[in-house]
């Protein structure tokens, strides 16, 4: 190895020298072919200048300028004979027609399609063309030139052309001194091969493009270049090219090429390098032989003696007291050191025995199981006293048979493979837990490998008994599981924190309400996840963790809090918080319990509104009943008096005004009756769109307010009380008009809604229609919106405060819902929903004819109000009927029974529906019909919205008479029933 290392620099020098010689050869060859390509380019330039001079001279001849064809032909022939390398000389007119030529040409030959002719005409100067195949005989490859002919007035008359035979280059270049496969060539500016010498028509034909790889090097923009590459014939060469330009500023018209085979350039350098390397190889072999002979005597024999001593060490033989005679060199010194080492090792062995005894005492004193196992045979080599107490003395037994039971082979969880490196040497330790099924104890085990006293690799296992710890952990895990199940089953949201206020736990309900998942919320500050603000002021109202800890067992709710969820939504909640204490009563955190009461608060508000309406309804019902009785007497008497023919016109006008006032009072009564308890709307299938448009246009007539409608073409029909819904629309539109004193726009839109929220609507399924009435008025603030549907609340000075309360009552009785949105200065929008009908279109209405009866009837009238009784009697007497009056149901039943006994039946019975403190019309009618099923009974009441009035036939009545009524209404009902 030393010899080889010594010879390595010489070898590197030879290789480096050979490479340098190769590089120099390549550089010399590049310079040579570069000069050759330049010489070729210069030669072509001279040829081109000669062609130019020839054409210029010819253009000055008078015969040429005057286009004397015969003279020109003779002159061209003489010139061509002096320049045989040119193919032909021609004179063409400005249209390219050949006028004269040095050689015979076909008739009608035209050269206008030649590039050099066109450029001479355009540039009015000498031009060199590009590779062509001559049109003249013989058709040869050539390189053309052209020059324009001018007359004495400098007017261009014709064009002189000639072409250089490309074969001309073959005798201008001598490459016999170059290596074989060298060549010289020329190409035009497009890379078309004009000349290639020596010729190779199969691989390098004239007139064909050169290799694309070679042509790419000419595109660098340099006037000349040298590169190495593969030619079209597959030979690796060194190429050189040179541009040929006729003018410094012009583009190159040709390229001159030269190339030398790379192999020919490098062959001398390669041969010298191979020769030098062979000589170096012979020198190396001789040096190695000499080195082996010297090393055998001076190194190998003493080393063998030293190896023999080390083998004794390996077998444990340390008795080397008879030291042999040693040589006074390095190996002799090393052998003496080995003898000294043997003495030291013998002393250390005695100490090791003593240390082993102490180590055994130490291991036997540990309350930990320690054992050593052979990794190949699984034999237990050692077990300490603690292990013997648990398992017995199992030294020498197989581990998987003695440490475990029920094993048919090595344990599947054996750690042997995890303790060794890839090369089989001892690796890192491995810690794990397992349960010994022989003694039913759990251990935390740390295994590692080490070399045993005899050199083999063994597994040392230290196992700590953790049975009690595992039992405690199991109990703790079960307790945590029970706690987790309990937390997840709680219907309220629960959040717990540590003492610093960082989130520890969220249950599922808390995740749903807050929008925070437990995984992302753990460790975050409580106030970042549980953000509370006041419902009114929107100021933060979240108590700190310190406040919860210091407040005692529980803190309550001082204001209505709103929780801001992760996505920014606001939810009204109720919550309470308490400190969490450990077994020593030390505070370790806080717990918050909360619930979402957003929908509950909405429900409470709606119930509160309904209670207000119900209270007002009770009051309105009583007032309306009595007021209608009074109006019945007033309106009826006015009606009777107006029939007196002796009245003056002035009296009739006054009575008409009084009747109008009574009818207005009747309208107010109808509004009050809307609140009356039990007042169901009298529904019929209707076009809600028509009802809304008719109502809005009636109110808006003559107002400075415009109204736009937006209803779909398939807007659903509804079952509604058209009068009540019209009243709703009119009340809302009136409010819109009041909110736009200077005029504005009311937009009424309708929309079909398939399904709505079950938490808001009484019938949470089915179809609904949505009506939105929006104005551009002054709007309302939040306080006004909160009270807008309260009875007697109004923002108008002249308002009664019943309009929107009536609207809500009507919509509610239609099983719908109404809401309002508004902002100060941005207008208001009232939206109400009504159940849609399943009927697709309105049925055709039957035309009823009015029949008036003049027959005298016997009529029984029951009413608790004396004025109404007296008025009814007067009206019926005026119509020619006999009237019997009763004040309550008992008297009416008794009177009817007496007439029945006397066989003097009543033709008609008119019963008041409501009798305070007595039997009303409904119960009375049931008694009368039992007595005479053929009896004709009419119900009369001021409660026009009472279910009996709406569905009178279901209760046995023939007709319904709404108070207050006029004489015409009474007569029409009697005529309809009695015919």
Number of helices: 25
Radius of gyration computed on alpha carbons: 62 Å
CATH fold assignment of the largest domain: Heat Shock Protein 90
Task: Tell me the CATH architecture of the largest domain.
Answer: 2-Layer Sandwich
Instruction: Estimate the strand proportion.
Output: 15-25%
Fourth-level CATH superfamily of the largest domain: Histidine kinase-like ATPase, C-terminal domain
Oligomer: single chain
Structural class: alpha+beta
Mean pLDDT: 80
Based on Cα principal axes, name the global outline.
flat
Number of strands: 34
Largest sheet: 6 strands, antiparallel
CATH class of the largest domain: Alpha Beta
Distance between the termini: 144 Å
- Percent of residues in helical segments? 40-55%
Uncertain segments are 845-853
Count of discrete domains:
6
What does this structure look like?
- The protein is an alpha+beta fold.
- The protein folds into 6 domains: 20-45 and 169-265, Beta-Lactamase (2-Layer Sandwich), CATH 3.30.450; 52-165, Beta-Lactamase; 365-471, Beta-Lactamase; 502-596, PAS domain (Beta-Lactamase, 2-Layer Sandwich), CATH 3.30.450.20; 684-835, Heat Shock Protein 90; 858-978, Rossmann fold (3-Layer(aba) Sandwich).
- The protein is 41% helix and 22% strand.
- It has 25 helices and 34 strands.
- The strands form 7 sheets. Strands 1, 2, 3, 4, 5 and 6 form a 6-stranded antiparallel β-sheet that branches. A 6-stranded antiparallel β-sheet has the order 18-17-22-21-20-19. Strands 8-7-11-10-9 form a 5-stranded antiparallel β-sheet.
- Strand 9 and strand 10 form a beta hairpin.
- The longest helix has 58 residues, at 2-59.
- It is flat and about 165 Å long.
- It starts with a helix and ends with a helix.
- Mean pLDDT is 80; it is low at 845-853.
